[in-house]
Amino acid sequence: MFLHGSNQDEFSLLDFAREVAPAHPTYCPRGREPSDASFTFFRRRTDRSIDEVNLTDRAAELSQLLLIIGQRHGEPALLIGFSSGAIMAAALTARHTALVSGAVLLRPEKPFTQNCFPDLAGTPFLLVSGEDDERRERLDAVGLVDQLRAAGAAVEWHELACSHGFDPEGGDIMLTRAWLAKRGL
């Protein structure tokens, strides 16, 4: 399942999905929270901090789609999220672990201030951050990597020489393809 970033919609990651997983089912839900002229998956406060109650509620709603995907395909969903979609993917993993088989988190941030991940023994994660990301601090990715590893997840983390958007050199695509190929996907 592909989860778009803020100020985007359900069509935003379709080209990326075609590039990294052309032969696989593609689910691209639209976030329910208004964000400028488009959408996001959860609210932020005026200071840009995450409204954790809203995030938890929206994750519970989205978990219903994960349940349907799991039933349809006979296995938990793999999540690929960009920016706020990466935060939502991490929140879904934290709150609805059994419905998630792993995740690719592009330009991530910790979903909750407190470490919230249950035992993720061996669950695979790819995190990709941008060295010049104007919307994230380097510690945002480091903190999430530390939390996931403390929960036993198998984490691969890369920093690309780019800003918050997709790497113009195609690094996000290449890393995601390689990571998926290692898992036979």
Structural class by SSE content: alpha/beta
Which strand order spans the largest sheet, edge to edge or round the barrel?
1-4-5-6-7
Distance between the termini: 13 Å
User: Nearest-angstrom radius of gyration?
Assistant: 15 Å
| Largest sheet descriptor | 5 strands, parallel
- pLDDT averaged residue by residue: 95
**Fraction of helical residues:** 25-40%
The number of distinct β-strands equals 7
Write a concise synopsis of the structure shown.
The protein is an alpha/beta fold and 185 residues long. It has helices at 14-20, 52-73, 84-95, 138-150, 171-182; strands at residues 2-3, 33-35, 38-40, 77-82, 100-106, 124-130, 154-160.
